[in-house]
Amino acid sequence: MTKLDKDSVIGISALLVHAANIDEIYSDHEKDLIKSFIKSYLEDENVNEILKKAEEIENNSNQLLNYTNIIKEKSIEVKKDIIEHLWKVIISDNTIDQYESNLMRRICGLIYFSDKECGEIKLKLINHK
Fold it and tell me: Which DSSP helix (H) or strand (E) runs through 84?
């Protein structure tokens, strides 16, 4: 698995926070999922500190492009992993609303990730809940 640098992880975590916040409910379970994403790339860092930075970035910016430009340059494996983490956060409350679906479509378009693969990841996660 390709490692991401700290700034990339913070930026992508901000995108995960955005996905978690889109339904206006930011649960502890969603925070735990985001922390697990952070740990998977930065096991030696203070996860709570990185989550706090990501939350601050998300709070001060509604520019999705800032986050997706980081991802666009990464390998397909990293993109798949990020899409999978986004879906985990979104489906953690057992509902997917139109804003969440729209967000995922926009992100996939911006990072050049196929809708078909995105849908397959979503179904795999829903079926394994």
Answer: helix 76-91
